[in-house]
Amino acid sequence: MLHNRATRWKKAALIGLASALALSVAACASERGQGGEGQVRGGTLTFGSAGDPKMFDATFATDGETFRPVRQMFETLITYKPGTAELAPALATKWEPVDDGKGWKFTLREGVKFHDGTDFNADAVCFNFDRWYNMKGAAAQSQMIYYADVFGGFKNNTSEDFGEPLYAGCEKEDDYTVTIKLTRPSGAFPAAFGLTSLSIGSPTAMKKYNADEVKQSGEAFTYSEYATKHPTGTGPFKLESYDKANGTVTLVRNEDYWGDKAYLDKLIFKTIPEEQARKDELRAGTIDGYDLPSPADYQALEDEGHQVMVRPVFNILYLGINQKNNPKLRDLKVREALEMAINKEQLAKTRLPKGAVARDQFVPQDLPGYTEDVVKREYNPEEAKKVLNGLKVKFYIPTEVTRPYMPDPRSIAKSIISDLKAAGVQVEEVSKPWNGGYLDDVTVNGKHDLHLLGWTGDYGDAGNFIGTFFGRKKAEFGFTNEKIFDALATADHEPDPEKRGELYEQAAVEISKYVPAIPLTSSPPAIVVSKNVQGLVPSPLTDERFVTVSKKQSD
């Protein structure tokens, strides 16, 4: 049995991530620094976004509509090879573990400048990592979800939800050699160094524009001038303007970029909340592409000459359960019945793209940590009704958003609500814009009972899924289960890949028994661009970079 597990882990690691997650880059577009035949410099490309960005400081970014422009302006120490989850050099040219995994030594790229003309070097790296660790204030820390998930906590935690910090310091050897020291080994690294939230910004700009200034007024958050007007990274594009009234973010080519310069003069992200409106604007030529087209439109868009690029599946949609506010949701039998009430197979077939599948766990099938031993609950509305009849819940539903795992939130929610009502549940619907209250209500303030949310993997590790979701107490789920927390922490600390996979399997089983949330579906998301767009490399991580993109000029 152990041998079979080991064989599967090797296949998952070597084949699943290198092949299943990888697209044929040559077939889709030319990689940066390669090809580029026929591509011309100049012009403006306008991309339709489903919602407004929250701001532009990667530290506080948590959603796709914010990450998309941020990724064009900022860079991380390590990145991912275009079209894959394979690690590749970025601001660091080399990295290696030291001190038995309790540190990572980086050789930094020389000759790199931030957008403000200051130097990127070891001092800048240490400034950023020390900034995150020393972040003060409950408002700021509450917005650093990715950092807290990877590094556990801060020097001075403002919430009991945070744990013992993993970060132990940054040691400069010389201007271009630096070691990030850890209190313990973590299997999240080195891949987690590629997280957009760990992008390296200009220390000079952060000091000048008070980057750490995050304020909360009621349920709303406001950010510094650095985050809203002067984000300063090393990327191939830099911010020219953000017209919030018109929902347009305008980026311009960074002429001093250290690598291959962007083809485009300008890159505009235009907020168009409705998918139909995005499609209409693509057809009219007022935008050049948008993310997550409706599956029903794939063929028509291709017939019209547009390029529909379907990414590999690397995501999960789930129905979140918050145990804090509603005592009945603390009853395991109620949570089990909620899962039995939902027809996942029907949801996958009728509300999601072709190729979507129903899910019974939160770890993708190609990753170590996936196991057939999880508790499986079949759709059984009659049995569910025996437990749920009369249950009242407040169900939060996002608007002004389209996500890879959730192309049409309203349609998906409608199907789930129909199932819940058939099982006797009384549902109060609460709809809010994705970056206009929904994420803060759900992930920070925990005002809901049930909610729709999901995840696209940042890198190929089970911890990036179940560790992110359930590794510590969160307002999103409102539960404390030390058995699950400890199981995930033990798996994360295990450096041996085979043992780590086995430990994540055990954690996945415990999670399936407890039902802190309900896994629903996984689906293959697409991105569409006009026939005039060249060089776009779709990513299984939805980590598209526009530095390689050009636009054919009209005759």
Automatic annotation (TrEMBL):
Q: Is Nucleotide-binding one of the keywords UniProt gives this record?
A: no
SUPFAM superfamilies found in the cross-reference section: Periplasmic binding protein-like II
UniProt keyword terms in alphabetical order: Signal, Transport
Q: Tell me which residues make up the Solute-binding protein family domain.
A: 86-474
An example of a Gene Ontology cellular component annotation for this protein is:
periplasmic space
Pfam families in the record: SBP_bac_5 (PF00496)
Protein name per UniProt: ABC transporter substrate-binding protein
